[in-house]
Amino acid sequence: MKRILILALLLLGVSCGQREPAPADEPLRVIFDTDLGNDIDDVLALQMLLNYEQEGKIELLGVTLCKANPATIAFADGYCRFNDRGDIPLGYAYHGVTPEDGTYLLPTLAASVDGKPLLQPARTVDSQLPEGYKLLRKLLAGQPDASVVLIAVGPLTNIGNLLVSPPDEFSELPGRELVAAKVRRVVTMAGLFGNEFDFPEYNVVCDLEAAHRVFEGCPVALTTTGWEVGNLLLYPHESILSDFGDPEAHPLPVAYCHYMEMPYDRQTWDLTAVLEAVEPGVWFDRSQKGTVRIAEDGRSSFETSDTGKQEYLIIPRERVEATLDALVARTTGKPQKETLQ
Q1: N or C terminus: fewer CB in 10 A for the chain?
Q2: Class for domain 29-332, per CATH?
Q3: How many C-alpha atoms does 34 have within 13 Å on its Cβ side?
């Protein structure tokens, strides 16, 4: 009788839509949403993810681009091909924000080594890439329930459009329900928290409507790394010049050197989101649970609550050195000292 009761309870759980996450020993399923071409940290964050995938720690399902500049498509495609991932699905925010060329997209695409282009993209703005949110719907629909981690490190255009998207050929679920079914966690680089600084953070204010959609409507756990976290962790320019072989033959150093005048050590905002998404709870502390609030001018604040599903990262000063070592190691694919205190 006891066995029958247990079986009945298990069947009840299935019929009520109870979801089990993907097995822990499988690679983490990741989708990366980026404004590649605005800041150089997007390139470093993408390299981290490609390295994680080569190590078997993640499966990079796709990359969605929220910067509305055609060169970001060619750069992303060429960069992934350089890393033997020319097959990776790409989506594009055709009506997104930040259409400017920036400082490194075009020079890196124009760079050559021994008379051959450094980046050799096969996809451009003429390749009819799907809208970013449409690719997100397609990718999510094909994944097990509660299995995908969304990492968003730019304006939240694509994620915001996903949440309000209607049912389509990929899924009968509207966007918010599709996210609730398929996404385990969202990790963003957005906002500014604490009392040391006070201004509207770039990724939030660039697409304020999308930021409201995400922080007010995300149905799953959401962790954000604020501006103040990456601001403490400066990527060393010495690594750029020495850890990628000939710096003129690798697109990361080429792009880094074009972004700003060398030498400079750049903040690692987007890298912190990737590190937390793939290695959760290891390198950063977290706030209490609650909800991120976005004001009309784009300033962010945080409201704790017992029912909130959101949190922001905190990095203790004594952990800065070890965490920076970890970021460099994940970006270069080379071991660093990275000892946690």
Answers
A1: N
A2: alpha beta
A3: 28
